[in-house]
Amino acid sequence: MIPRSARFARPWLAAPAIALAVLILMPVGAALAHASLVSSDPADGTTLTASPASINATFAEAFDTGRSSMELLGPDGATLATNAAAAAATAESMTISGYATLGPGVYSVRWTTITPDDNGIERGTFRFTMAAPVEGSGQAGSASPGAAATPIASPGAAAGGSSGGSGDIAVALVVLAALVIAGLAWFLRRSR
Q1: DSSP designation for 84
Q2: What angle do CA 79, 81, 82 make, to 5 degrees?
Q3: Which of 35, 98, 18 is CA-nearest to residue 69?
Q4: Which residue has the higher pLDDT, 188 or 31?
Q5: pLDDT given at position 114
Q6: 167-190 and 4-32 helices cross at what angle (nearest 10)?
Q7: 170: which strand partners?
Q8: What is the dihedral of CA 153, 155, 159, 160, to 10 degrees?
Q9: Mean pLDDT for the chain?
Q10: Which residues contact 151 (CB under 8 A, 6 or more apart)?
Q11: Which is deepest, 53, 122, 162, 173, by most CB within 10 Å?
Q12: Where are the alpha helices (DSSP H) in 62-123?
């Protein structure tokens, strides 16, 4: 038989447990909704045989164009170009253009997005490699004119870009919330 005090304690324990779970999961939902990188052109890890005319990145959510940025970094880490100012207050993509022809080396594109609704900040980097031109072909890596701008996938290249930022923290928060909820369920079950 369950003592009378234990029967009355269960509802009083359930309400705080549910409130705690909601409080834990609310920031997780907000963290998952930030403007993380969905795709990039060139894609992260791609090897190119010709300099791209522009660099584009698409994000999961609209971001504040006045406070978000993207910059192209050369093999030496120096900033070569940044995204142009956008006409709209919010956007879901950024473009960098107007830079000189890129020589051989590994280039990084560093981005920061800030969402207007909750000021959520996401940061990350994606990289691509410019291959050295093949001697004697007249083209960078190919004899056919149209193939020079075709990206060559390198081993382990991802289709999207690496998001970095708080996306990893959101996963940890989801796991933590699940553990707290499981612990509370176990506690409530044991008190029966």
Answers
A1: P
A2: 105
A3: 35
A4: 188
A5: 92
A6: 170
A7: none
A8: -120
A9: 75
A10: 42, 43, 46, 47, 48, 128
A11: 122
A12: none
Q: d(Cα 2, Cα 166) in Å, to the nearest integer?
A: 46
Read off the pLDDT band of 177 (50, 70, 90).
Answer: confident
Say which residues have a Cβ less than 8 Å from residue 185's Cβ, sequence separation at least 6.
none
Provide the pLDDT for residue 180. Answer: 78
Helix (H, G, I), strand (E, B) or coil at 53: coil
Query: pLDDT digit string (tens) for 29-67?
Result: 544 557 889 999 999 999 999 999 999 999 999 999 999
Cα 98 to chain centroid, rounded? 25
- Is 32:165 a contact under the CB 8 Å cutoff? no
DSSP code at position 3: -
Closest CA to 109 of 157, 54, 62, 155: 54
Residue type, position 95, single letter: T
Identify residue 20 by its one-letter amino acid code.
L
Task: Give the whole-number percent of the chain exceeding pLDDT 70.
Answer: 61
Nearest to 147 by CA among 58, 77, 7, 49: 49
CA 87 to chain centre: 23
Structure tokens at 113: 């997005």
HSE-up (13 A, CA, CB side) for residue 131: 20
What is the distance of C-alpha 33 from the center of its chain? Answer: 11
